[in-house]
Specification:
By secondary structure, the chain is α+β, with helices and mostly antiparallel strands. Helices cover 41% and strands 24% of the residues. It has helices at residues 2-21, 111-130, 136-156, 162-172, 178-185, 190-193, 196-209, 232-237, 254-270, 286-295, 312-316, 344-353, and strands at residues 24-30, 38-43, 46-52, 57-63, 68-73, 84-89, 92-98, 105-108, 221-223, 229-231, 243-249, 275-281, 301-303, 324-329, 334-338.
Length: 354
């Protein structure tokens, strides 16, 4: 009996040790051609760890209670880093490497990260497959269709892990309606619902549900380029204004600049018939904002607080991608259309004003 008690005690100690070790992770890798002196491990806005490096090589170890999206990067803010890799921080031995013939870094070593790595690999392959096409508009639409299909499959098959939540985040930018996003969010288990990304998506989606067609617009005030406060409701009440487009954009946003010719054409045709634009810029510096407006003859109302993605109106409207826009009926203050891109803006104005 004494021997049995000793064996049981040792077994309990070993099991206790295993219980602790199951949350341990190791992340190793090399940022090729990197001469930065430091590498950071970042989750959201929080720095988890950092280390000095030589030649971009790093190794992080630690404990994580629940899997979560993170970045390993060469700056404490991954948006400002020259080298960065998004991955799922979870227990296991994780290894970061660079995809062949690409600038993309991926992490492997766990089920979720292997799925994410395969998705990134497919993304690189798609770009190469369509690189020779001369019909770029058609190709972009086809690539979007295929990419969203991959994300949707990944989401539906992984509503129990962080890879599925990653897919939902990507789909939330433009591919899914707010109610669809909310339905998928509610399909994840409680453990995933505790993650900061889930909470962020739930918050922004709740805001999006307040900015769908038929909902009243949310009033706001921000300053124009001369520092004068502009209130959206006052723009709505200006004599002659029948419909106002609240347009979220930025000078650094390539898709916004490509969208601009369609907006200018619609403004030129309908500004004399009751159409006005209230642009909200997500720029972070005054000079490029002003230059973009001047260079592109954006002769409509424009405001900004120069807070980048933390622009207070963008946060109020739950904006997580640009360009984004909302067409408001000035007589009722209700949203009559959302996300009017390309010729769709002119087509909607023709329906309303011709």
């Amino acid at each position: 009996m004494k021997t049995n008690r000793v064996v049981l005690a040792l077994s309990a100690m070993l099991l206790a040790g295993c219980g602790t070790n199951k949350n341990l992770y190791t992340l190793k890798g090399v940022f090729e051609d990197c001469d930065e002196p430091m590498v950071w491990l970042v989750c959201g806005n929080d720095v988890i760890d950092s280390m000095s490096v030589d030649g971009g090589a790093f190794s992080f170890s630690g404990e994580v209670q629940n899997p979560t999206l993170a970045w390993v990067c060469t700056a404490p803010n991954h948006r400002m880093a020259d080298f960065e890799c998004e991955f799922i921080l979870e227990p296991g031995i994780l290894v970061m490497s660079k995809l062949p013939d690409a600038e993309q870094y991926v992490v492997k070593g766990s089920k979720s990260n292997d799925l994410l790595s395969a998705l990134e690999q497919r993304s690189v392959e798609m770009v190469k497959e369509y690189a020779q096409s001369h019909d770029m508009e058609g190709i972009e639409e086809e690539m979007d269709r295929q990419w969203n299909g991959l994300l949707l499959n990944g989401l539906k098959e992984n509503t129990d892990n962080m890879f599925g939540l990653y897919c939902l985040r990507e789909l939330s930018y433009e591919a899914l309606e707010p109610q669809q996003i909310m339905n998928y969010l509610n399909s994840f288990p409680e453990k995933i619902q505790e993650d900061r990304l889930w909470k962020s998506l739930e918050t922004s989606t709740s805001k999006h549900l307040r900015t769908t067609v038929g909902q009243p617009f949310m009033d706001f005030t921000q300053t124009d380029a001369d520092g004068n406060p502009v209130t959206a409701s006052q723009v709505m009440k200006q004599p002659g204004n029948k419909y106002v487009l609240i347009d979220f954009w930025a000078s650094w946003c390539g898709p916004c600049m490509r969208e601009l010719p369609f907006i200018k054409e619609a403004y030129s045709k309908y500004s004399g018939r009751g159409f006005q634009i209230l642009g909200v810029s997500l720029d972070r510096a005054r000079e490029p904002w002003i230059k973009a407006m001047q260079d592109n003859s954006m002769n409509w109302v424009n405001v900004s607080d120069l807070k980048y993605w933390n622009n207070e109106v963008a946060v109020q409207y739950g904006i997580n991608s640009i360009p984004s826009n909302f067409l408001i009926d000035c007589s009722t203050g209700t949203i009559v259309a959302v996300g009017l891109r390309g010729r769709n803006l002119e087509s909607k104005l023709s329906e309303l004003l011709d």
